[in-house]
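NAD(P)-binding protein
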Amino acid sequence: MIRRRLRAGSSTHPVRDGVVVGAGHNGLIAAAYLAQAGRSVQVLERDTVAGGAVSTVERFPGYRVDRGSSAHLMIRHSPVLDELQLSAHGLRYVDCDPWAFAPGTATTAPIVFRTDLEATCASIAAAVGTADAEAYRQFVGVWRPRARAVMRSFYSPAAPGRFATAFAGLTGTAESARPGPVARRAGAMLSLTQELMSSGDALLDRWFTAEPLKAALAWFGAQSGPPMNAPGTAPMIGFAALQHDIPPGRALGGSGALTEALLRRISADGGEVATGRPAVAISRCGDHWRVDTPGDGGHCATTVIAACHVLTTLDLLATGGYDPTTIDRWRAQIAVGDGIGMAVRMGTDQLPVYPDLPSDLPAHGVHSALGLLVTDRAHLRRAQTAASVGELPERPALVAMGYSAIDPSLAPPGEHLLNVWAQWHPRRLADGTTWQQVAPAAAAAVTAELDRHAPGFSDHIRHTHIQTPEDLENELGLVGGNIMHVEMSIDQMFFWRPHPDLSNHRVPGADGILLAGASTHPGGGVTGASGRISAQLALRRR
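Predicted structure tokens:
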């Protein structure tokens, strides 16, 4: 129930147990846990569409087009779906199997990654030889338990002690030549931590020989944002091993089907979600907190969960009277970055036809997969280097996802939907041109790159919707066009994300303000982790 409290110097007014700012999937997950526990909760969202980057709308007549994410990789490895019983509220996933695909070259066949490890190794062997196939089998054996440990660390608040606990027992996945059992365990732990902190490129060069396989895995890892020559990116590639436990899932009806199930869950438990209600300030109100929205006098609660971008949260706190010097220091020390990429959504009468695919694929071919359309890491490096100096890549690196092949509800009968994510594209261009000016050319480069791998595909495009980094910022609140909110570099992960002062999902000196969303541990992607963590912290407060 909504309890009544006395506003200082005024009359009584309603005070909820929780107000959540931002209806992205983490904000909705936080609200769902609170409502499930019988707490009164309201979600306030500036957009008219709930879900943020986990939402699906009709961009073209009869098409259900994702506004952000398309494949759900991490949340299927989490406890969230079962704890909130989202299947009972209409959420259905279909396995993406094959889960990834890399095109062939003039001398190598395509590589198809399936849930079945042996089938994947057979594809690798056919493409680049048995040595790398065996290396991949061993790689999965070593990195699967490590990736599971990383996932465990995602669903608890980040702290050095918890981090150590999550990785306890993994010394058996590393080697040491030190004599004696104690020294050997210590050496293995040092070896393990070094490998976890190494770059993705170093990891790939250590394990594999063939460049097409290295490029595919590097591109998979780079979906987290950083280039794979950056320190601490090895685990981003190691996460590929978990796809042989549970593959990526496609929510039937679009990525937003997760949001729709969460909305039904919240409503069934008495929670409220208000769209078109932007927060403008978070301030003290007696012994609790008030979130102001234009024209309605504010929403009071004992706990506020800010699930929006951290810079947006800092703006709200500053307007509400929080110490501006501290906020300025945090803002200066949080690296948001300058965009990661752009998306092109295409309505078509045919999905891409990639040459030389094996004959034993399922009826949907490789269109359940992340189409990792690169064949060498130099392609990735050139694209990332161009973006780092504010230029458009000559050849964008693409991930193509044709999920209408496994979910026909996404497009009208006889037609298809292709979602294409392209890295790297800066939010701000060095020559001073605007994204409105260059968007058509950038989209044309995406189409040309698709045609390199699926000749003639562009002839089948009937509708196009372009999402530039500027569009991602304006429509989805992704400051700087960064889909991860804050850079996913090692110095801004775990107990450093988004800032050491804020990494425990709390705001110093503001008991009752909690943080969630991609700005916080464990970062971007569809995990639900920070929503779950912030809800657990809120439930422990009383």
